[in-house]
Automatic annotation (TrEMBL), chain B:
Domain ABC transporter: 2-236
Xref: CDD domains: ABC_Iron-Siderophores_B12_Hemin
Organism taxonomic ancestry: Bacteria, Pseudomonadati, Pseudomonadota, Alphaproteobacteria, Hyphomicrobiales
A single GO BP: iron ion transport
Protein name as it appears in the record: ABC transporter ATP-binding protein
InterPro entries per UniProt: AAA+_ATPase (IPR003593), ABC_transporter-like_ATP-bd (IPR003439), ABC_transporter-like_CS (IPR017871), P-loop_NTPase (IPR027417), Siderophore_ABC-ATPase (IPR051535)
Species annotation: Tianweitania sediminis
Length: 328, 251
């Protein structure tokens, strides 16, 4: 990887275990900080309140990190992520369609759990169709994939902006509020549903864990080594679809976050084995969201949205990767 | 034994492999030669189930390649393609160790290490064992991939132009190694080769393809005839016998 060579490796002599431990300690500090810094109330209130938010952030961090790394493994590249392939645009479209057809009042009345399930199902179906078509073939070019993703994203965004133009201004205000990514999740019901789904797909993933490293060698090598490539890729894409859906439905669209944490994980880990990269990416994601939230809200006392900062940094990483020519 | 029965591959209207019937005996080194676009690599890819056939049947020791479980086949047949680009950042040793995946999945055993070290030794790779693949030259990388295939230790090993990027010393070394694998370890080696002189010197059997069909096959002595090769490659060739080996001169 040209990026690996271009940037000095952060830990030239460190073993994967050492890096993971360091990341875990940092993530733990961030989590403890989030639970305690600036708490001026009764602990019996502060801890459960912040605990639920923290649990939400950890879930999202895990879902985004794992889904991005696995997606990059099955597509054999380090630059495409599910979000870049138009996932977030679909989420926005679904929200807009709902408000457009039902009206904001009715939409806010829908049971959020039901809504959540509906969104997840829609996105899994969409990604199932698209990705299956794109990746089951005999190795399509990365540029075609990128192009298809961008075009589909534009299509969704165009439909969305058309609908938003013809919508009632009041409805639009409600809609806009729903569309900003926010890591302040308060709904514990949703958290339980999400945790259940993420746990379920993680179990499935655990059972085929040994295929991940082999799949990273590319389709031909994986088949040569006896992996049922089509089956494994389909299964992983479903896992990815569910993870991304859950995280998008929980916090809204974050396009470049996955890319950011996956790239950082590959950068700091001296090994590209999944047993090292997956935990590293998850810990980095936790560090970014939780640590970022602490610094932004508590220390700097800013009301700026963390998602904007993350998107900004992630976007810069994306551009850097493109400019350094990781896409070949 | 590798059997192919009326195997065809079609891309749109183009017939790349056209009803090939072929039986490759067990044991020995078989080379597939032919001009560009003759369908050699496509045929090899279909034999190793990397590419689905349009029509036909391929069996490895009677096992249908399209129906047999992937991991069963992976313990019987290995394949090396021409182009081996990968995103994962691996050391040579890591890569070679993947050859043991069909046997032990993700739980390497002591025996695996023996296999890995032996494969590294066969290809002179011990000094490079802990280097990353992206730090190697094309030829060194090619040898690392061949080591992975040898480490897979299958009865049948298929190579698509294994001499790519290799200098003379390593090309000859590679062919001697494959010869040894066939003679001493009873492996069946199938190669796609561009250099017909390598095919002549190291094969037991040569299959010549042209325009998607098997044009000629037989022992090197039978194939290495000026009339046969001129016909297959559409180029004037002269055959000389040097030190008991038939060498084609076409320069």
């Amino acid at each position: 990887m040209s990026l690996d060579r271009a940037l000095p490796r952060l830990a030239p002599k460190a073993t994967p275990g050492m890096v993971l431990t360091l990341l875990a300690v940092l993530a733990l500090i961030a989590m403890v900080g989030f639970m305690t810094v600036g708490a001026n109330g009764r602990w019996s209130f502060v801890l459960p309140f912040r605990g639920a938010k923290l649990a939400g952030m950890v879930l999202v961090a895990y879902a985004v990190a794992v889904s991005t790394v696995l997606f990059q493994t099955v597509t054999n590249n380090r630059i495409l992520t599910p979000s870049i392939m138009g996932f977030d645009a679909l989420y926005v479209l679904i929200q807009t369609l709902l408000v457009f057809h039902l009206g904001s009042l009715r939409v806010t009345e829908i049971d959020p759990r039901l809504m959540f399930l509906g969104e997840v199902v829609a996105m899994v179906l969409f990604s199932g169709l698209l990705y299956r078509w794109l990746f089951s073939g005999e190795g399509r070019s990365l540029h075609l994939l990128l192009l298809v993703g961008v075009v589909i994203g534009i299509l969704f965004r165009s439909i969305t902006s058309f609908l938003q133009r013809v919508i009632d201004p009041n409805e639009f205000a409600v809609l806009q509020d729903r569309l900003f990514a926010s890591f302040n999740i308060a709904d514990t019901d949703l958290l339980l549903v999400s945790a259940g789904m993420i746990g379920g797909v993680s179990l499935v993933g655990w059972r085929i864990f040994h295929t991940f490293d082999v799949l990273a060698l590319g389709r031909d090598a994986a088949i040569g080594l006896g992996v049922d490539h089509k089956k494994a890729v389909t299964l992983i894409l479903v896992i990815v679809a569910i993870l991304v859906s859950v995280s998008t439905a929980l916090v809204g669209p974050v396009t470049f976050f996955g890319l950011l944490v996956a790239s950082l994980a590959y950068q700091v880990m001296p090994s590209s084995r999944h047993k090292h990269i997956l935990p590293a990416a998850t810990l980095i994601a936790i560090l970014c969201i939780v640590g970022g939230q602490v610094v932004l809200e508590r220390v700097l006392a800013l009301n700026a949205s963390l998602s904007i900062v993350i998107e900004f940094v992630g976007g810069l990483v994306f551009l850097t990767l493109l400019l350094r020519g990781v896409v070949r | 034994m590798i059997e192919l029965k009326s195997v065809s591959k079609q891309y749109g209207d183009t017939l790349v492999v056209d009803g090939v019937d072929l039986t490759l005996p067990k044991g020995g080194v078989t080379s597939i030669i032919g001009p560009n676009g003759a369908g050699k690599s496509t045929l090899l890819s279909m034999m190793s189930r990397l590419l689905p056939m349009s029509t036909g049947w391929i069996g490895i020791d009677g096992l249908d390649v399209t129906k047999t479980r992937g991991d069963v086949l992976a313990r019987r047949l290995s394949i090396l393609r021409q182009d081996n680009h990968m995103t994962a950042r691996l050391t040579v040793r890591d890569l070679v160790a993947f050859g043991r995946y069909p046997y032990t999945k993700d739980r390497p055993t002591g025996e695996d290490k023996v296999h890995v070290d032996r494969a590294l030794g066969f290809l002179d790779l011990q000094p490079l064992a802990d280097r990353f693949l992206d730090e190697l030259s094309g030829g060194q990388r090619q040898r690392a991939f061949v080591a992975m295939v040898l480490c897979q230790d299958t009865d049948y090993a298929l190579f698509d132009e294994p001499l790519n990027n290799l200098d003379m010393r390593h090309a000859a070394g590679m062919m001697r190694l494959l010869r040894r694998a066939a003679d001493h370890f009873n492996k069946t080696i199938v190669l796609v080769l561009h250099d017909i002189n390598f095919a002549s010197c190291y094969s037991d059997h040569i299959v010549a393809m042209k325009a998607g069909k098997v044009a000629f096959q037989g022992a090197p002595d039978a194939v290495m005839q000026a009339s046969v090769l001129t016909e297959i490659f559409n180029t004037d060739m002269a055959i000389h016998e040097i030190a008991g080996r038939k060498i084609a001169v076409f320069y």
